[in-house]
Amino acid sequence: KEIVHKTFPGYVLVEMIMTDASWYVVRNTPGVTGFVGSHGAGSKPAPLLPEEVNHILRSIGMSLRQNDLEVEVGEVVKIIEGAFAGLEGQVTEVDGEKEKLKVNIDMFGRETSTELDFDQVDKID
């Protein structure tokens, strides 16, 4: 038996290109009473960051992109999402089942290990 639970009861997540026309349609949808992230009358809501969307999607077993990352210990990757975005580091551990890897990055002249999801890095060829 499959049991379905609402992740965010009472909320609707919308992916859209924010134009005046699309914003009008969303805010005038029957039953919509307010928006998370908007401050004051007439203001548009702030979009979620990609890492926030990925966190939500991962919690329900999905992801923004297909995780076809094939990387081995010793290879260098570029971090594309999160606090260390833009940095490069060397892979020290790979967990294919959990789609996580450990990467050593250089911070202030010191090697620091951080755990990342596959979708937070790109392989450097």
In words, what does this structure look like?
- Keywords: Transcription, Transcription antitermination, Transcription regulation, Transcription termination.
- This is Transcription termination/antitermination protein NusG.
- Participates in transcription elongation, termination and antitermination.
- This protein has helices spanning about 20-25, 50-60, and strands spanning about 75-80, 90-95, 100-105, 110-115, 120-125.
- It is of the alpha+beta class and about 120 residues long.
- Strands 4-3-2-1-5 form a 5-stranded antiparallel beta sheet, with no helix packed on it.
- A hairpin with a 4-residue loop joins strand 2 (about 90-95) and strand 3.
- The longest helix has 10 residues, at about 50-60.
- The relative contact order is 0.14.
Report the principal-axis shape: elongated
CATH class of the largest domain: Mainly Beta
The multimeric state of the shown protein is single chain
Give me the secondary-structure category: alpha+beta
The helix content is 10-25%
Low-confidence stretches: none
Overall domain count:
2
Q: Largest sheet, described in full? A: 5 strands, antiparallel
Reported CATH architecture of the largest domain: Roll
- Whole-angstrom Rg: 19 Å
- Tell how many strands the DSSP assignment holds: 5
Order of helices and strands: HHEEEEE
- What is the fold named in CATH at topology level of the largest domain? SH3 type barrels
What is the number of helices? 2
Spatial sequence of strands, sheet with the most strands: 4-3-2-1-5
Query: Between the first and last Cα atoms, what is the distance in angstroms?
Result: 45 Å
Strand residue content = 15-25%
How much is the average pLDDT? 84
